[in-house]
């Protein structure tokens, strides 16, 4: 189990001004997370679809569409 300080470390790092404007990335233990890839056996890290800009764009468009319909 992590201490409160270690648990907050990535959030505190991401609030730093030198990362202003950085988005679409995942951080674990103050480091940018690797992308998990079953083909290479790298199973730790973030799933490839979670950092796919095209997928993010489609999700954004679908979300806007659904929210507009809900009004």
Helix-strand layout with pairing:
Layout: H1 4-14, E1 27-28, E2 31-32, H2 53-70
Antiparallel strand pairs: 1-2
Your description of this structure?
The protein is 41% helix and 6% strand. The chain is mainly α and 71 residues long. It has one domain. A two-stranded antiparallel sheet has the order 1-2. The termini are far apart.
Brief digest:
The chain has one domain. It contains two helices and two strands, in the order αββα. It has helices spanning 4-14, 53-70, and strands at residues 27-28, 31-32.
**Shape estimate:** extended
Overall pLDDT confidence: 87
Helix count, DSSP H or I runs of 4 or more residues: 2
Helix content: 40-55%
Write down the oligomeric state: single chain
Number of DSSP E strands: 2
Largest sheet descriptor: 2 strands, antiparallel
The secondary-structure class comes to mainly alpha
Within the largest sheet, what's the order of strands? 1-2
> What percent of residues are in strands?
5-15%
Series of secondary-structure elements, N-terminal to C-terminal: HEEH
Termini gap: 44 Å
The structural domain count equals 1
**Unreliable spans:** none
Tell me the radius of gyration.
16 Å
Q: Can you give keywords for this protein?
A:
71 residues, mainly alpha, two-stranded antiparallel sheet
């Amino acid at each position: 189990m992590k201490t409160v300080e270690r648990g907050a470390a990535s959030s505190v790092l991401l609030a730093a001004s030198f990362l202003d404007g950085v988005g679409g990335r995942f951080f674990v233990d103050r480091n940018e997370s690797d992308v998990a890839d079953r083909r290479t056996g790298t199973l730790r890290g973030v799933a490839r679809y979670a950092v796919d800009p095209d997928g993010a764009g489609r999700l954004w468009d679908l979300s806007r569409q659904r929210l507009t319909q809900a009004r």
